[in-house]
Amino acid sequence: DAGVTQSPTHLIKTRGQHVTLRCSPISGHKSVSWYQQVLGQGPQFIFQYYEKEERGRGNFPDRFSARQFPNYSSELNVNALLLGDSALYLCASSLQGAREKLFFGSGTQLSVL
Amino acid sequence: GQQVMQIPQYQHVQEGEDFTTYCNSSTTLSNIQWYKQRPGGHPVFLIQLVKSGEVKKQKRLTFQFGEAKKNSSLHITATQTTDVGTYFCLYDGTASKLTFGTGTRLQVTL
User: Fold this and answer.
1) Residue A36 neighbours by CB distance under 10 Å
2) How would residue B4 be classed by pLDDT, with cut points 50, 70 and 90?
3) Parallel, antiparallel, or unpaired for β B71-76 and B61-65?
4) Tell me, what's the pLDDT at A98?
5) What is the mean pLDDT of residues B51-69?
6) Are B38 and B84 spatial neighbours (Cβ–Cβ below 8 Å)?
7) Mutation site, B10, B21, B42, B46, interface A, largest A CB count within 10 A
8) A44 CB near a chain B CB, below 8 Å?
9) Cis ω on the peptide bond leading into residue B8 (within 30° of 0)?
10) DSSP assignment of B28-90, as one string?
């Protein structure tokens, strides 16, 4: 069975642009969460979705948005990119929600120039 | 507000020595999970602790959840070079914000 897949693996953007990151959860998993990890730091929680509804949101500006589709895949959108948005963006899936084992994808490395 | 401190930030041990990392919370936690992230990799689930005073073992790894559910520890006996990485605790914070501890980076040398 496939694990959590994220695309693209690497991305280079310039300031002010918009980016969309994609995540496909493990088959049967209904919850997806997104994290930002800056080099040398721990992952920071951005969003959690379960059954297409937002269940939790971290301390990120409104430039960050996400959604979950009927097939449980998810997109993370970031508008008006800033240099400080450069990071590894991780997606994790779980069967139902927050208090369960999380399976992480390999992440999307975003560089903003 | 809720604060969770993970200590130490970094530890360098000789292979065969023991290692412990701690997560300490100012408030009661409903549960806590532990993850390991190898350099260049993504977090990998190790364990989940739910009950007060719970102790779980996985080979050389021992996980504990405090009686008051405010602290947790991960202890590795006789470290090996394969244990290198950063160990994070993860808890369900205020308003369902999944929060990682600051992490403990473990370096093991021969």
Assistant:
1) 22
2) confident
3) antiparallel
4) 65
5) 97
6) yes
7) B42
8) yes
9) yes
10) --S-EEEEEE-TTS--EEEEEE-STT-EEEETTEEEEE-TTSSEEEEEESS--GGG-EEEEEE
